[in-house]
Write a structure and sequence with these properties.
Helix content is 44%, strand content 13%. The chain is an alpha/beta fold and 489 residues long. The protein has an 11-stranded mixed β-sheet with strand order 1-3-2-6-8-7-12-13-11-9-10, sandwiched between helices. A two-stranded antiparallel sheet has the order 4-5. α1 crosses α2, α3 runs antiparallel to α4 and α6 runs parallel beside α7.
Length: 489
Amino acid sequence: MEQSSVQSRASQVLHNQGKGELWRWSATDLAHGIRTRLISSREAVESCLDRIEEVNPVLNALVEVHAEEALAAADQADLAVKKGEPLGALHGVPVSTKVNVDQAGHVTTDGVVAFKDNLAEKDSPPVANLRKSGAVIVGRSNTPAFSFRWFTNNDLHGRTLNPWDKTRTPGGSSGGAASAVSSGMMPIGHGNDIGGSVRHPAYACGITGIRPTMGRVPGWFGPPNGDQSLSGQLMSTDGPLARNVADLRLALQSMSEFDPRDPLHASVPLLGEPLQKPIRVGLLRDVGVATPSSAVNQALNEAADQLTEAGYVVEEVSLPLFAEAYRLWYLLVLEDFRTNISLVDQYGDEGMKKAAFNYFSNAKEWWGENPGLTDYIKGYARRGTLIVQLQEFLQKYPLLLMPVSAEQAFEQDEDIKSVESMRRVMDAQWSMMAIPVLGFPAISVPTSVADGLPVGVQLLGRRFREDTLFDAAEVIEAHAQIQTPINPK
């Protein structure tokens, strides 16, 4: 977007709403306004803090708000502008961080009572990069215990509500971040994703979220002085949540700087060579795991039509490899998780314990009661084959349009009602699991509201081609019949 258009829009918003409504502004507008001294970072942070005070007691999205620290950082950001110092992409913009990553001087609880005093000495890579970009961290967002459910509830911090409907999940595990961004507490929330934990909360709360290519955003998913699990190294990545695609571009740029603590980080340009036109998009509705609901199918139809009108060529495709990758997640990730099951048994809340039991009870249908080392080795071998198959497919179709979930936001705690209800949830989330196994970037973008709940679609692209996802997502976003931030309902 041209700078003049950003300035014009920011000026118009300021004229229409006044500085008291800065919490409604996008990160892009705030960054430009702060850089040009149209507004100050302090004003932006104060507005967000006022909004947090208004709606967070209802939603419980942020489990920690550090107002004095944030205002001091905002004052330093404003001073840097006055001095003419170099400014980062998110200079002075309020953001949140998820409570399962280290932030210096704050506790990394991961939603577990036993970890309530786990004080971090230094920032994790994504938090460090947000600071380098000039972002002002205003609070810490909630997550389920051990960040391993699509429902954001734990015994330490309590339940986070969806601002669209309190009876429905805000998604997980970055449900606190999604609820906060959707309701206007800040324009950008940090999240991470090994099984949909960025994409699903964004979908459930009617905002955007991107799971970048593995290696794009540096992260660390192990103990400070220990080792990361293999699935954590190969499948878990940090990513931003925001209310629009332009803000996701800005946040991804800010989070992608090299950090030596990530064993797989790759410094790849954020902008690649233009794709050959017309760009072909594969429309993947169903891989034989869960039939999309009528609302989800309608969202896919609308997105396909919008892309077609924009010059893309959309064709329905079949890709059974996603069903296989979905099941493979329940071998490769769950068997890593099994090595820490004693921690869940000792320190997990009842919700996490029930969820773990239900996960394993369903996974044994595919992998048996206790998969062995040979199963694990063959699973990783098969993973490589599936990745190659998808890469070959993406040579013809550089983009895939697919569901985020086969259903809209689930009723609260649907995963722990029974083994059968968990299976329904698991199957609906087939793309949430398959994509981390394969390692490709994917974005969740909202389209509309159906029966009072947000609905949207997911786009997947070639490795390190997040730019192509943003371009297509902006087409869909331009036609979206959904507006955030919203007041809790």
